[in-house]
User: Fold these one by one.
Assistant:
Number 1:
Amino acid sequence: MRRMLFKSLVHGPLTEAAPKADDAALAELAAQVDRTARLRLGRTLSIREVDAGSCNGCELEIHALNNIVYDLERFGLRFVASPRHADVLLVTGPVTTNMREALERTYQATPAPKWVVAVGDCARDGGIFAGSYACVGGVSAVLPVDLHIRGCPPSPITLLQGLLALLETVERSVK
Amino acid sequence: MTETTPAAIKLRDVIRAGRQVENHSPWARAVINHEDWRQAAASLSDGQWTLLGLWAERDQVHMAIIDGGDLGLLSLPCEDKRFPSVGQLHPPAMRLERAIRDLWGLEPEGLADTRPWLDHGKWPPATFNDVAHEAPPLAARDYAFLTAEGESLHQIPVGPVHAGIIEPGHFRFTANGEAVVRLEVRLGYVHKGIERLMQGASIERAAMLAGRVSGDSTLAYALAFAHAIEAAHRIDVPPRAVWLRALMSELERLANHFGDIGAVCNDAAFAMMHAQCGHLREQVLRVADRCFGHRLMMDRVVPGGVERDLQRDSEQEVHSLLVQIRKRFPELVELYDNTASLQDRTVGTGIVSSALARQYGCGGYVGRASGRAFDARRTPGYPPYDRLQFEVPVREDGDVDARLWIRIHEVEQSVALIDQIIRQLPRGSIRDPAQTVRTSQAHEGVALVEGFRGDVLVWVRIGADGNIERCHLRDPSWFQWPLLEAAIEGNIVADFPLCNKSFNCSYSGHDL
Ligand code: SF4
């Protein structure tokens, strides 16, 4: 293990290094998110993720935000375990009728001011699951949504872009 | 065979004795009588046969069974909305039958557990499957969990919303101090009604739905669905597409195994493995994106072939990925193997006995870590795996450590497979142009595909109009969730996340 740790010290971080086309885009976006976050919040924004019936594809990409390539926490955006610690609810899925109550209760448990971000095409309007007897169809049918991030699932880059937009929304509403 | 063992009944003979359904392939489906249905349940409970799936439609129930190397389907008409419960003899069928009762209103006669399963009392009445649906009298929060009696026992309710970024489900622990006495899982929170949405859908739309049953296994589902359609309509898939499908399947397996190996170690508070494995996973997803235009490769496998061809320079991408994995992964394996504090958490934790794995027909790494050497790429098998060399790793210990080692070996096998696929990739077209075949009769197809988590079963009936009449998709998790409940017994509550992650069952795939 010591050998590996030493190697990582010598090699430098794996966090977004290689300057290829898509990496360049990410680096640019990352810098932007960073500046905005510092400027407007000065500290951290806590996010609570709620799966309201997703196929779990969106969760995989939200997870990826935490890997060492995207390393979301460096922007002061972090995932927390309880809605009571959260500023933002990141909601996925078409809101199944069986999850509706849990989603509402999670929202109620989140202290104000709070923001809701609907992640993925099915969180937007039910997506491919729209019209099912078992789906409410979109987060906005249940909660006030501040931002929609499109995609099935949205890539980590799209998610980062969305979070940047969120920071702007937050800024506007706290002013 | 000892004298006490009842004479084994062959699935083949039961099918021959029944009324064989025309236009069903590749395995036979026979409509049988009550007597034979009960006998089949007995053969399952004796351990002669293994249950692959149990589902229903308006007026009949179907079972998919594997008997040695033989696969087949048995169907029973339920004129009076009842059928003899299989679950009363064979516990792995219990939750499947509770789901049938919820979704189709058919009563599994003799099933002691009368609680609903997927139905939480929230669906609007009379909309489901046009079966007059009556909301069960119990609201979700009144659900009667199984009890455990004894002094100083306490219950710990967890979920449906969990602390991490994971899917929703409820876990009810009964604990004696730190030790778990009983765990009961309550699922159904992410039930989306996918099978109902499929009824009447075009094949194209149904394929997209199949690819969204469980996002982490989108490839496996899309492939199983495509196989079932192709079997029903006897569509020949161009060789290049067959090989590209295998390439994508192995990439999906790699991505998931990397993610989970890291996550299991993370739950044992070993963050470095998590960081490294997460990076490898990201590399796989990026290669998938560059090769096929989608990180998870959703909608890339379609009935008749694949949607996106692999370009020459992309072959190089795949090759460099293999080089990178071969260089870095062995170091990580060595790290896992040499870190005593990590092994201390994984060895001997969450043991699944081989008897249980066999009884439940438990697939994937959970089954293989407990001695069940089943792999759908071998049995029933599908091309191009018959032309590829690979091993199916098996261990007997059945603990978290064994499940991790199976994953490690499967990574090695997938790397070797991708290497072979890239070398032998045939040229040519990637999609059969004949799309919807319209015939005057219904056609049925069935398929079993090995996803990263285990075998995915898809059964489909295509109507005369070329649209889906009924489609059933069975996630491997159906036969893994109950084993997680067994595995945690006697372990401490704090080891639950570790056990749970080592299974990584799908909620969405199970709830549908
Ligand atoms: S948007 Fe797509 S990936 Fe996300 S949960 Fe819905 S179907 Fe799955």
Number 2:
Amino acid sequence: MSLVRPISQTILAIAFAFFVASIFILLHHSSPLEVYGALYQYGLGSWFSFSNTLNAAFPLILTGLSASIAFMSGVVNLGQHGQFLWGALVCAVLGVYLKLPSWLGIPALAVLGGLSGAAWAGLAAFFKRKYKMDEFISTLMLNFLAEYMTLYLATYPFLDPKAYVPSTRLIRREYFMTNIFDVNVAFFVALFMVFLCWWFVWRTWRGYEARMMGYNKLFATVGGCDVETDTTLVLLLTGFLSGLAGALLILNGTQHRFTKGIGANFGWDGVMIAIMANNGLFQTLFYALFIGFLKNGAVGMEFETSVPSEFVLFLQSIIVLTLVGTRSGLVSLTDWLRAKRELGKLVK
Amino acid sequence: MLVEMIDICKVYPPNVVALKHVDFSLERGEIHALVGENGAGKSTLMKILSGVVKPSFGEIRVNGQRVQINSPVVAARLGIGMVHQELALVGSLRAYENVVLGSEPSRFGLFQPQKSSQMVKELADKFGLKIDVNAITQELSIAGRQKIEILKQLYRNVDILILDEPTAALTPQESEELFDEMFKLRDRGKTIVFVSHKLDEVLRVSDRITVLRRGEKIATVKNDGNIDAVRLAEMMVGKTIRTTSVKKRRPVGHPVLVVKDLTLISKTSGKKLLDGVNLTVHAGEVVGIAGVEGNGQKELIEVLIGLRKPTSGRIEISGEDVTSFGPRQRRPLMAYVPQDRKNVGLALKATIMENLIMTHHMNPPLKKKWLLDRNVAKSFATQLIRDFEIVCRGPFERVQNLSGGNQQKVVVAREVSLNRRLIVLDQPTRGLDVASTQYLRDQMIALRDSDKAVLLVSADLDELMDLSDRIYVMRSGHIVAELDPQVVDKTVVGYHMLGVSA
Ligand SMILES: Nc1ncnc2c1ncn2[C@@H]1O[C@H](COP(=O)(O)OP(=O)(O)O)[C@@H](O)[C@H]1O
Ligand SMILES: [Mg+2]
């Protein structure tokens, strides 16, 4: 199967990344073994750590999925952060005021959160269609706007006066999502979305058009693909995924309210995961779990060793860089070898 | 010899052979034209000389000394500078600022606008380049921006100036001005490489001409009156194989494609790219479009497929007015084999199957409501691979792994199997080996015999003469002649292409 190569490449790249990182750990006068031991213990070692890793990963899966689907379609949606914030805020506010039984309320809030993200991304789609504005710029700008607007809404109209930092009130208790064996239900929702998106991308004709558009937009256009609608659809879908991540974090996270700085990095982590995953959907799942593992393990690393948990951010960057570097390195190596062979034929 | 390039080979990774054992030389004070079809390797050869691209093999000598030109900086030091096909200037800067950018005259680290402007003005006057050096770059025409690029090289004191297709985007008047400037530069001792595929221009301005074809050097000739455009064109395109398909005259059917007064005016330059084009293609005939490249054929095709909206005029396919339609709406009515298969005809990184089902995916049996039927797609692709003898490992192989000929077969298989009444083919045999070319020509005849309307654009006159039932000749966006290849001779077509009377 063609799976062997990417998997061995990934393992190679991750191993190499950990190797590079150990050099820095040594420079920090710590033992890599100890550090990685702690990382493992707290990230994977027990059911408790493992379930925590899964719980840390679900927003990453969704924002990663959002970025992957956008990028594979050639749609540069970089607005995961803003779409996430709107999903979270709308869910948090409605969760306070909307009175529904939990079996209906929870899915309704999740979907409404997703739709808010979709609507926010829809603005970028609108600008693109109407004013030919690049979604790359508009989604980025909309991130800033979302940040200020949601913060304003949480600080003034919907402020919980009893809170220490600007935040909305606690959502109604019946909307708290439960866990199954310590694993957030939200994680399973995220898994389900991976399969749903896989189905969309690989089984529907719209998904086919989106992928072809990502490979070569002119080819798709000349071939008769409905590129305008496809682009809009991809923006809406990926906006929905990010918004859903925000909503689920409110429903199934630890705070159950929108606070200043919530989900600080999920948007950008999603973009990074998509890059690591080369826009593959199952790869996205894998790398989201991997980053979740690192984040979760980082806590343990700080407990057990003298390495600060910020180091994990550094480790994460090293891994992304070596991973992407190793991968493109391997590709250009094979290209270079083929070119050599071709030249050999030519000059003998 | 000022410059000698010896036995140059270039392979772009992973496997594009752009140059094969090319020799090229420059003498001091000459205008040396480099001609060849698109993709012949002209730009690559010149990029190697100017240090932008590294050769895979071969050596370069400047003034008899063997040199390694590893970067444009090294090239500039050797006195070699290139004005690229794509101009790279900062639009918001003034003309003179772009000229000095990167090597500004400065005093105590301060930029001196007054002095720079003055220096550039003197330089322009010295070489007779008419330009307002204080103009904002983006407000200048393409011709003006080109002068900035030329000045930029002169400012760096180059002796050898390479101009890569400088006239491609110029109006005839602007081209004239450029030629005058080239002569002045030559008179002041500069050596100029003029890259072009417009043969009449080449014959007018150059001292020597080198012809490239498919990465190989065909010849270097003195432009001393013993060479003419027809002969050059032959060298450029090559002797072609005769098609074995028996050509029988058949009664033609209804008009399928009708184009009336089609005009296209460039929004950026205001140039008339298409000027009142009228043509008709009937069912059961092959209609050829002849013309020297760059005379509106590309634009005509773009308007026909719906990528560009004509400024005025009307297009009908099978009786339906499609003028306002985009490609999606036109596709049910026409098949299209684009000239640029890598950038338009295929998604190289996608699989053969994904490439084969494009356009077909809009209809059943592939499209089932929301879904695309994978099983149908697979058997459809397998069938086409067999029918069209595409050499590959299977429908899931990536198209980029295929040879050029087989890539083209993927495009042709897809379009022919659409079974539309109209098929437009733009340079379908360019860059293909003999066998694939033969195969494609047979396909076109077969299409005609199954009563399709076939429109064939080709730069290869022999091909057009062999295949077409009628030939339209295009020049400067006009249809200048409608000829019957059974009656007229190839040279007559050539005369119409070049605009010289027979
Ligand atoms: N950067 C590149 N990478 C891969 N292939 C290239 C690259 N540049 C040019 N080629 C290929 O090399 C061949 C020669 O191209 P080029 O030198 O641009 O031709 P010309 O200027 O005569 O039109 C073409 O087949 C083209 O596709
Ligand atoms: Mg070129």
